[in-house]
Amino acid sequence: MKLRCFLFLAVCTLAPEARGQGCSQCREAVGQTPARTQQAYRRGIEVIVLAAGGVCAATVLVARRFR
Fold first, then answer.
1. The domain containing residue 41 runs over which residues?
2. H helix and E strand count, the chain
3. What is the pTM of this model?
4. d(CA 17, CA 12)
5. Within 10 A of 41 (CB to CB), how many other CB atoms are there?
6. Is residue 14 part of a domain?
């Protein structure tokens, strides 16, 4: 079971679709802002990813508990 979970997580994180799109419009918009604003964007993205991951993990735990 642990091996299956590990393989599932590895496939999900290594998939190209799991990474950011890197669209040129976003890159140009952020590139024109000051360094502090760019740093704020990066930290904001990290916070959003952690929050979404927490919600996902909580949903899985609740679903498994009340299965």
1. 20-67
2. 3, 0
3. 0.53
4. 9
5. 14
6. no
Show the tokens assigned to 51: 């929050």
First to last CA, the chain: 17
The count of other CB atoms within 10 Å of the CB of residue 63 is 9
CA pseudo-torsion sign 18, 22, 23, 29: positive
Q: Assess if residue 36 is contained within a domain.
A: yes
Distance from C-alpha of 63 to C-alpha of 67, rounded to nearest angstrom? 6
Write the pLDDT tens digit of every residue in 7-46: 887 777 776 655 556 666 777 778 888 999 889 888 988 8
CA atoms within 13 A on the CB side of 6: 3
SS3 for 59?
Answer: helix
Neighbours of 38 (CB within 10 A): 13
29: amino acid identity, one letter: A
